[in-house]
Input
Amino acid sequence: MALRSIPVRAAPEDKAEMVTEVVVGERIEVVSGSSGWLEVVVPGHRTRLDSRGYPGWILSEMAIRNDAWEPDVVVIRKNSADLPLGASLEASGAGVRLPDESELELEEEAIQPLGEPSRGSPLEISRSLLGLPYRWGGTDSTVGMDCSGMVYRAMQVCGVVVPRDADDQYEAAPFKSRDHWKMARRGDLVFFGGESVTHVGFYLGDGRYLSESGEGGGTVVRGVEEDPYWGFARYG
Output
């Protein structure tokens, strides 16, 4: 089976913390190499940690170089090929071609041309992930995500660019507020934390929000007052 995603780790060790995750078709930039590992940055995963992109390490055997490969479609919903949201691919007949040149059949409604206006909303996308397991650092919608990873992917497939981590997602928002959550609109991002932002989800209205929760066991709906509320933010 072709690789669907690659963990990006904090250090060149199998047991090192996964800090983020790239899905098939996402571009990485190699900084250096060391004993079977590549030091990389992920340009598409914005972060205050590095202006070039999210920093970390991946196993060199997982990297694929294909200078002729030009993706033209992106995965926008669950699909029969079990490809993750945000996967960038080449359209090929009745399916898609992956960077390793393998091909998969894929229903037309699961993809859309890169750069085309979205057919859904981030809130709709996140609702489709209810029950998905929680994985620290995860962004792969087929196996599990963390809270900011889910927000990142749901916004990404709808054409909205946000940073990778929850604290950066709050700080980078065009509109953000520390006002009471009752001032938030349906679809806004709501943030939680003590001395700083550590958690994020989509506001559903009526005091409820949807998020990937380590305590809740995955993508769940929770009450805003169940967690230490920080503020809310709006993109677009």
